[in-house]
Request: fold
Amino acid sequence: MKRILVTGAAGQIGTELVPALLDRYSGSRVIATDIKEPTEALAAGARFEALDCTDAGSCRRLIEEQGIDTVYHLAAVLSATAEGMPQKAWSVNMDGLFHMLEACREFGCTLFTPSSIAAFGPGTPADPTPQDTLQRPNTMYGVTKVAGELLCDYYHARYDVDARGVRYPGLISYMAPPGGGTTDYAVEIFHAALMAGRYTSYLEPGTQLDMMYMPDALRAAMELMDAPADALKHRNAFNVTAMQLSPERLADAIRAHIPQFTLDFDVDPVRQRIAESWPRRLDDTAAREEWGWAPEYDLRTMVEDMLVRLAERLGVTSPVA
Ligand code: NAD
Ligand code: SER
Reply:
């Protein structure tokens, strides 16, 4: 039986990771924490506690008092929001991770923390982007993601902290809204398609980015955490991907179910610049070879499932036959 702490649990990933953890590790205790209350009811076996990850004392105290053995550290400020408040983003993304690594060192916890496609920059080979390559991002979010990857490696090498992680692509889900990223359009477009039949993209046509459906993202985290340590050569910051999307490619797949759906463009230069600095396609060979990573959802199956489940949540008729 595990005792798991999830930070940033009220966000896009945490909202679905908490029930997934309880499902996979039945009988375990999961403490869901965030600076804001979760909007979804917590699954049986989970408990919510307010926790600011920039407060070292509170992080340490909670981990000690609850006898935590595993931490999923999700609290962060995402790319587009971070460009609007870089100082805050540095504090949450770096101080928060540092406090969690310190507590994991002191109390012998295993840590999962996600990096991102944002850990790469304009000088990185974009298609495909190798596992080990040049990382010179030009966003505050990306800077914190590279620094976080290095910090996790350091804590493993220096203190033997079992700190694991993946570089997530943009994540598509129907439960909780995304938290201010550059890839959020790939979620917004489904809401707009079902409610209005049209969407205005803030990214230019042809802007290709890696994406993944949430069930695969949750499975990636838990499968990596369950992988035998001696099989892992990288341990942290594994490239993972499932599909490559541009706004019009995603719109075409939605049109297979909503033929009258229309897409137009009103480009946001800040998010466009960020997207252009990111990979077009990650090479996830290392994850496949070292811990057996393989996505289950492709574009067609993701779009079908999203439309059915989101329509149910929004109380509208599903367009999927
Ligand atoms: P999100 O923005 O939806 O959720 C982050 C949560 O962190 C929010 O609920 C927020 O309230 C909380 N938070 C902010 N400041 C905090 C603080 N000081 N203390 C405690 N909690 C705080 O983000 P997400 O999509 O769930 O992302 C989780 C992790 O996955 C992040 O590290 C993010 O960089 C990474 N990631 C996400 C994506 C994606 O597409 N969603 C892609 C790549 C990587
Ligand atoms: N989806 C995230 C973002 O756009 C990638 O890390 O910020």
Remarks:
- The pocket of serine (ligand 2) is lined by residues 78-79, 116-118, 141, 170, 181-183 (CB under 6 Å).
- The chain has two domains: 3-169+214-239, 170-211+242-280+297-314.
